[in-house]
Predict the 3D structure of the following.
Amino acid sequence: MKTEYLTEQELERAAKLLQGGGLVGIPTETVYGLGANGLDAEAVSRIFVAKGRPQDNPLILHIPEAGWLERYCERIPHSAYRLAERFWPGPMTMILPRKSFIPDVVTASLDTVGMRCPAHPLCRAIIEKADVPVAAPSGNTSGRPSPTNANDMLEDMDGKIDAIVDGGPCMVGVESTIIDLTCTPPRLLRPGGITLEQLRGVLGEVDVDPAVTRLMGAGEKPRAPGMKYRHYAPKAPVTVVTGDPVRSAQYIHDHAGETDGVICFDEFVALCREKSSRVVLNLGPACDQQEQARHVFAALRSFDHTTVPAIWAQCPDSTGIGLAIANRLNKAAGFHIVEV
Ligand code: TXA
Ligand code: MG
């Protein structure tokens, strides 16, 4: 299959392809998504083939405005409207009871569905034009880091999808926050662009699913099926180093091998590279977590173009969007974490 490369001006073409059952790479503010008409079971099942995604991992439905919630969800709690008003359009997905006509392949036969209204204007325009809810996982091959620009998505999907729309680099860089509103108190299933602190500001008490901060045991079942899979992993093994940035940088300087890869804060690039031929990538300034979020996936991906035998990553603390960055790095490392 030849994958069409579309620009912003060609959003009608993208909408047509979606309506016709095609697979289209779409930009969102978080990461690029692999979209299909969420009401077309056959189209949706091709998403799983293109990504090599396990069938038991449900997809998120993307809608252009909160007004579409009632079309696909039932027994919507008041809290959903309060969250939508505060954070939509934006990087937040709500888990809600679903209507039964949504194809089972979208929800992996769960009785809930993830709903998200993305902030990227081009993304919303495409969905509005297609006039269907768009089922879209991140646009990577299953297990690889999510793509945060059109080129990274093409690296995984060229020849496997009908088209990709280039909407520029993603402004957030990590996937949406997933909040489950079908339990009491509501539960954070995946940290993302909307922070736990922001959610608590609206909802009060919010639980954090154990899968966010630790490896799931063999018999355990996380509430977001996707959180059980090894994820975001470059080919080389990753070690995450947490703690005070001056100490974690010094630890990496002392322990990384001569030709290892390193992801570190701006301030410590020279230290981590000192007298070695290490591949050192800059995550952004230690104090700028937004910048770090924008770089984390591209950094993990770029090591696959090198032969580094191992990767070391400095990790921000777990406040704000740092919780999401730490979660992605820890998952890439299979929760192989050193605390200094
Ligand atoms: O930012 C994002 O959310 C991106 C962009 C493209 O919108 N999408 C994304 O989708 O990250 P995906 O499929 O890569 O991750 C969705 C996660 C998976 O871990 C899945 O298990 C979980 O959401 N999920 C989806 N529906 C669910 C449901 N009904 N209950 C619990 N977890 C659900
Ligand atoms: Mg994903």
